[in-house]
Amino acid sequence: MKRLEKKFSFSPASFFTTFRQVASIVAAICVLEILFSCASSPPSVESVNVNAFDTLEHDSNVYVRIPVSVHSELTNNLMKSFIGSDVPEKYVKNITDSIDMIYLGVGSPSNKGRLQIACDGNISGATKIALSSMENWKKETKKVGATGMYTIYTEANSKLQLCVPGSNLIFLSKDLTPQLAFYDKEASSQESESDLTSDGANSDENKWKASAIYNFVGNAETNNVRIYMKTPLAFVTNLLGVSLSTSIFQLNFIQGDLKLLPSGKYSIDLDMEFKRDGLVAKAAAFLNVAFFLADSKVAVLDERHLRITGLQVSMAQLQRILALN
Questions:
Q1: pTM to 2 decimals?
Q2: Which of 49, 60, 208, 233 is most buried, by the most CB atoms less than 10 A from its CB?
């Protein structure tokens, strides 16, 4: 396993940027929420129950799902890495208590740097008071849809926008309009029976919710971290620490399932889909050599699909993958 530990890394620039921005912004919100938790909060507004993942656009290059409470050590380390060690532990812990799930959509065919984040949890009314007191944030009200009015906060330097549309969601992106449009449409549909029964109006949404991507990343039945990549060659290259032949590793996607083990390590399972027949056997032979000293298995599923199971990494390794060390 030592051979793999020296080479195991995951460093696509956009993925690193995403985790840094998530950590710093969400951590700031949660810390400020504690500081202002004793202040008088505005009356709670009844809001609809919208799934956070439903607010991400459907053409992202990478999707990530992190169940925060189950992966509390990873999440705490992630947050502490960017908010500083001088912040008391109880403030950091409040993040895992307030947020249940983090969903990320990174990149798109037309915008490789696009970042969309949706956090699902129990957001108290004190959050909005805290946001109003944050320096370098501009507050504005934006109309989305026919009647939806949303308060958006824009950070002066990064231009990252933040919105708390209801009591259970936090959105972050440099352009929140698409996410708020999805939220507003879903919220409106829950109030209108005609919208719910209009198959034509929701055909694209129904197709998306029936897709393999949606079922894999948005699956609420698992507590594992899940990653789906449409542009995965860089991931495999950095995973192995060697250059890969593009004539063999012609991939449509990779989906990864990261399970926290009782030992504290993570077990990674990867499914790969190849663009054409005749490549899987060659790729499997290459991977069997690359993983010779690792406790993992490479299995050919069919002419287009290959699976790697049981690749174990330590918490320290995973933190390096996520640029925490």
A1: 0.82
A2: 60
